[in-house]
Amino acid sequence: MPRIVLGIEYDGSAYAGWQWQDGKATVQGQLEKALTKIANQPITVLCAGRTDAGVHALEQVAHFDCEVERDMRGWLMGGNSYLPDDIRITWAQAAQGDFHARYSAIARAYRYVILNRPMKSALLRTQATWCYQPLDEQAMHQAAQSLLGEHDFSSFRAQSCQSVSPNRLMHFIDVYRDEQRVIIDLCANAFLHHMVRNIAGVLMEIGIGRRPVDWTAELLETKDRSQAAMTAPPHGLHLAAVYYPEHYAIAKNPLFDKLPADAKRHD
Predict the structure, then answer these.
(1) Which of 26, 40, 91, 99 has the fewest Cβ atoms within 10 angstroms?
(2) Nearest-angstrom CA–CA distance, 170 and 139
(3) How confident is the model at residue 222 (pLDDT cuts 50, 70, 90)?
(4) Tens digits of per-residue pLDDT, 202-214?
């Protein structure tokens, strides 16, 4: 059965997350409803990484199998015609080989955005976390570097996280300022539940000077979530991109230029 791959952009503000939930609006539910109309048969979509309520995607990757033939423009334009304005299919292509949106991924990148100014924003209220206290982005960047490499991230996972192992390989974390926004870009082979939001919460504590730069290293050693900062709000979080081996012919986002050549999938 032919497999189709999609790139999807969405504002998660109005949704209970990616994953379908009975009686709740979800991104997966809206996407499946739209594609089912195009295919005239039920469509089930699988994604690279499920996002929580209020979390956004600059580029989620998903796939579905369908025996009905449609050209790529039909899936793209037709699908968007049935989607709400806060969800968009940005590209569609035929899958190569044994491609799977989740299991073929080598790395995922997230972006956490903090609006750092005295007043809240009328325009970015659902797209960025607000922090009125001045943030030292250089101290935040320095602190984040202790998280690079493979570690037990128990101090940065949700207590409800169902992952068998707390170990993940962090490829890079960059913290930088873009005028009034402080941005945290993170890339790892995979992420634990709430891992990015918990890291962001810790880095914000360091950025306002409440904690020292070496606090991140101390938290890694404790392996105790209760010792870390509060979980940062969901609306600052964006799934930025997903990286796949070249033979799957999925366009490589420039965020992954820093990845080592031998980067491998998380098992």
Answers:
(1) 40
(2) 19
(3) very high
(4) 999 999 999 999 9
